[in-house]
Amino acid sequence: MIWDAVKDPFQLILQRNSVVSVTELSGITDFVKEAKHKAKEFGVDKFCQFEFADVRTKISTLNSYDIIVLGSIGPVFGDYFTMLTILEKHLLPNGIIIIDDGYIEDSASFFHSVVQKKSDILKQISQAGMHLIDETISQSEKNSKKQIEFIFQN
Question: Are 128 and 81 in contact (CB under 8 A)?
Fold first, then answer.
């Protein structure tokens, strides 16, 4: 799981001829340690900065980025509208935000206080002035829970 979170940025760095920089904030020290290890293993550690930090307290000091990836953190600023509105200030023109997270199918009868229905998330994306440009649903080999990546831009 940790490997999946850091694999794609490293592949991007290795495949591109231009310099790419990666900044990762994580509230889990093991993720930061593993990311540093993998960056060194791939020979891209000079392009990467990994920090144990809470994005909610660190947000005011962050730069602007072409890509913001929210890896399974949920709506950390309360809901997706608020989160996207805050993060948009740190997104470069034509940049994208990728959310790798779960949702509840609209037809489901159960409720969870943190996980939202898909239609509610899409509504909040629209209210934030963004739109969905791609959606990938995958099945984990180890469990049958659906994971989704919302990829959208402002």
Answer: yes
Tell me the backbone φ, ψ of residue 126, rounded to 5 degrees: -65, -45
Closest CA to 80 of 96, 65, 97, 94: 97
Residue type, 34: E
Give the single-character DSSP code of 72.
S
Q: d(Cα 149, Cα 44) in Å, to the nearest integer?
A: 25
Whether 52 shows a pLDDT value over 70: the answer reads: yes
Predicted confidence at residue 15, as pLDDT, reads 54
Q: Nearest-CA neighbor of 116 among 79, 143, 68, 148?
A: 79
Q: What is the pLDDT of residue 74?
A: 79
